[in-house]
Amino acid sequence: MTAKRTAVSSALSEEVAAAYAWLKRHSSEATRKGMARYAIPSDNALGVAMRDIKALGKQLGTNHQLAAALWDTGIYEARMLASFVGDPARITPGQMDRWCKDFDNWAYCDAMCFNLFDRTPHAWAKVTQWSASKQEFVKRTAFALLWSLSVHDKIAADTLFLNGLALIEKAADDDRHFVKKAVNMALRAIGKRNAKLHAAAVGLSHKLAASTDPTARWVGKDAVRELTSPSVTRRLAGVASRTSR
């Protein structure tokens, strides 16, 4: 190993150690024990509130090398911090796959999708790829990412979301709790994007609500309830009115 590489490795180790020390100072046993209420494993956790992890991420800024090193620690809070400091321009499809295979709780799925994955150029391809996975949290990530893209990708064409609805229909009978919840959230989020997608999402929701499969029926009924609510329909009508002027 060259002297330069050794120095970089040493500096990175110091950054990881400093981040760990900060997280440790902001941890509490009460927070760690409270994770069980949200179905988050705490075996490798310190017990740090999400607001504090986010604050440290903002303080550190984008640092993809640090994000990878934090992920490799296996510590829950360090991995959540990686979602805030990772660089969407530098993360590769392979790295996304490796991290996703490590997910063992819904919090990893959602944090990575909403903080990092949805800003990568690989996001839409990963929705399709991961939606076919047999692994619960990989499949959860596909639909959490679709949900996140529905909220954050302001320039994506409707066609991408219509394709997403086809993936939702295909996965709607998956009765695993963390999958069906993400499928439902993605359906509702797409339906709130614009009038065209609202109509398509409501149509699919009614179809699922009439299914003989209990999981698909729950997904559909719950989505119909929100997407046909006065608050959603009024907001979409207002958006349509503003864009037509």
Number of helices: 14
- Low-pLDDT regions: none
Write the element-wise H/E pattern from the N-terminal end onward: HHHHHHHHHHHHHH
Number of domains: 2
CATH architecture designation of the largest domain: Alpha Horseshoe
According to CATH, the fold-level topology of the largest domain is: Leucine-rich Repeat Variant
Report on this model:
With 245 residues, the protein is mostly helical. It has two domains: 1-87, no CATH class; 107-245, Leucine-rich Repeat Variant (Alpha Horseshoe). It has 14 helices and no strands. It has helices spanning 3-25, 29-34, 50-60, 64-72, 76-85, 93-102, 106-115, 123-131, 136-152, 158-171, 177-191, 195-209, 214-227, 230-243. The longest helix has 23 residues, at 3-25. The model has no long low-confidence stretch (mean pLDDT 94).
Characteristic key phrases:
72% helix, 245 residues, single chain, mainly alpha, Leucine-rich Repeat Variant
Explain the layout of strands and helices:
Elements: H1 3-25, H2 29-34, H3 50-60, H4 64-72, H5 76-85, H6 93-102, H7 106-115, H8 123-131, H9 136-152, H10 158-171, H11 177-191, H12 195-209, H13 214-227, H14 230-243
Helix pairs in contact: 1-4, 3-5, 4-5, 5-7, 7-9, 8-9, 8-10, 9-11, 10-11, 10-12, 11-12, 11-13, 12-13
